[in-house]
Write a structure and sequence with these properties.
By secondary structure, the chain is an alpha+beta fold. The protein has a single domain, classed as SH3 type barrels (Roll). It contains two helices and five strands. The chain has a five-stranded antiparallel β-sheet with strand order 4-3-2-1-5, covered by helices on one side. The chain starts with a helix and ends in a 12-residue tail after the last helix.
Length: about 140
């Protein structure tokens, strides 16, 4: 019986020892993510692209404009109600701009251009008749 208990506790010890560094690494990655979020907020504010959609670690979402930044948090103002919400950089899971990105706009315009070009080519090929007046040999 003591052999079974000793084996169980030894296996439990191996499992707990191996998860220690993983938990420590997650704390460091959240600090790194917070600095990335802070850089993104500052970049958006300086480029006058304040409209954002934020997903928080708690599962809730915020939409609005970034109005102020600080050392540990930034302020988001809801456009409809005017309510201000202070959000910590570490609380942000995902920060993205609202509306279509420039890449999507370029892709849509390119698809429309290719569609028009293909339509014109099909119409030109259908109406092209090199022997309209017949073949003349001289």
């Amino acid at each position: 019986m003591t052999r079974i208990l000793m084996t169980f506790f030894l296996a439990l010890g191996f499992v707990l020892v191996s998860t220690g560094p993983v938990a420590y690494g997650q704390e460091q990655s959240s600090e790194a993510e917070a600095t990335k979020v802070k850089a993104e907020v500052i970049k958006r504010l300086s480029r006058k692209k304040e409209r954002v959609k934020i997903k928080l670690r708690s599962g809730s979402q915020l939409k609005g404009r970034i109005t102020q930044t600080g050392d540990n948090s930034f302020t988001v103002t809801d456009e409809k109600t005017g309510n201000r919400t202070d959000v910590g950089y570490a609380d942000v899971l995902k920060l993205q701009g609202r509306g279509m990105s420039t890449g999507k706009k370029i892709l849509i315009a390119s698809a429309i251009g290719v569609g028009v070009l293909v339509t014109v080519a099909i119409i030109a090929i259908r109406n092209f008749d090199p022997f309209k007046n017949g073949v003349v040999i001289r």
